Amino acid sequence: MSLDGGIHLGTTIPGTYHSKPYWEPLTASITSGGTLLLNRWVAVHINLSQNIALPPRDETDWLSEYLEYQAILSGGIWYTTTRHTFALELNRNMANPLEGLGVSLRYWYAIKSN
Fold it and tell me: Is residue 92 classed exposed, middle or buried when 0-12, 13-18 and 19+ CB atoms within 10 A define those classes?
């Protein structure tokens, strides 16, 4: 079993959007999750990422009156052999259920060098 967590703070470099000054001043997120190894090849994981962002700004004004909030719950199952990994992951933004359900299928191949 593995538990993980993290904190992220970010901003964008001021630039232009449609020839006007534009920047996103601050984004903060907290992530927590865990992974459980079921046997030698199969693992399941779950993760919750909560993000809050100040609205974008132009040169003098806020471009929105609202803070953006996301609470993305994701989970998946992984199957791994020596060189191959298959994953099926689902995610949903709990703060905005109208966004729907995200589905991801992944495959990795590892080149082994001796």
Answer: middle
